[in-house]
Amino acid sequence: xxxxxxGGDGFCGWPATLHLSDAGHEVHVVDNLSRRWIDTExxxxxxxxxxSIQERCRIWREVTGRTIHFHLLDLAKEYDxxxxxxAEHRPDAIVHLxxxxxxxxxxxxxRHKVYTVTNNTCATHNLLAxxxxxxxxxxxxxxxxxxxxxxxxVRAPIPEGYLNIRIDTPDGERAQEILYPTRPGSVYHMTxxxxxxxxxxxxxxxxxRITDLHQGIVWxxxxxxxALHPQLVNRFDYDGDYGTVLNRFLIQAAIGYPLTVHGxxxxxxxxxxxxxxxxxxxxxxxxxxxxxxxxxxxxxxTETHRVRDLxxxxxxxxxxxxxxxxxxxxxAPENDLVVKNDQFLALGLxxxxxxxxxxxxxxxxxxxxxxxxxRSRVPAVSAWTRDLGxxxxxxxxxxxxxxxx
Length: 405
Ligand code: NAD
Ligand code: USQ
Known about the structure:
The protein has 13 helices and 14 strands. With 405 residues, the protein is α/β, with parallel strands linked by helices.
């Protein structure tokens, strides 16, 4: 297949690009490199040293003989170029990962909220409008989030996207299937909820073939392809905005930084290893809906864990200490989470579960590149509200001198 990977320079996109190229597909990365600019804005860098996307593609060709094409394009701002690109290249499938994906970054300030909403919703809507206008019949696979469901404890397993309900009508009770009600916990997660409505409309109105992958937190760093050469290494975010919880705990353990548990650590979240994330994208591509079908929704996760249990597991494994900090986020102190993922299992996914070996692999990567870590960028300081901002702990290590006045 000819596959366009929008956001193919990112943490999930780069390994997906290599995986699909390795499987023999013609792969085109479309990216505006905004994530690299955000690193510059925040004054942080990937733990792992990343080459330019052009250099990464050159190394891939050298190592495997396969070509990855790179196209610099802003999906949200360059509608006409996007339309022209689709008309010229006419991909069979489009994998859409090109959004601002960090919840803390999206809550940093009003400017960051506006950027996240504008970037993500315009990127998705521009793509959908251009697909209709060019008349291409590509299968669109979007990377969404488990966070659209919210994290309240409903006790019932979260279904894959849709909920069967019964409503009262003048003629009696009637059954209806609706999108599972969204309850986003950040501006970022809200944009993924908006995406869902855009997908529903374009599938129903224009017969676009769309799959939405509600993905949990991705952890780990290497896949078999990124491990082929040091310059194919994946990016690895550890900072307070872009680092996700398990990867953060693992690098914190590697550099002797206390594990930064928010509140009681009672949040239960869904997780998936990066190797399974790329495999799921491949499986979803092989199982396209037909024109006129409803949007196909998969829960792309393999296990759930409570944050404090993860911290305790990492502490046991590495001897790290745990710091319980005021939570900068507005979220329930405790939640349970039960999630259905039957569709990927039925398609043949063999889940990679959290195992000591894989945890140690990340700790080893972190130790190797520990000299690149700026400890001052580790604390999570973006707060969900002004009041929470006043309680944020900027110094979990307790290194700075405290005022005694
Ligand atoms: P990332 O930030 O590393 O990668 C996103 C890529 O998209 C970047 O290379 C960025 O430059 C590009 N991009 C952003 N806006 C763009 C635009 N307007 N035009 C062109 N390119 C643009 O993020 P990631 O971790 O790889 O996540 C990829 C997708 O998967 C996101 O949509 C995210 O919401 C979703 N997801 C990620 C995780 C996770 O744990 N990382 C979990 C669930 C879902
Ligand atoms: N947390 C800590 N300590 C930390 C960092 C986080 O206790 O140092 C807690 C947070 O308070 C939260 C949980 O860990 O309760 C998860 O936080 P996270 O940053 O790992 O994940 P999240 O903000 O939800 O976002 C990440 C990705 C996002 C994706 C989402 C999937 O950045 O792109 O959509 O995971 S999900 O969580 O299933 O919605």
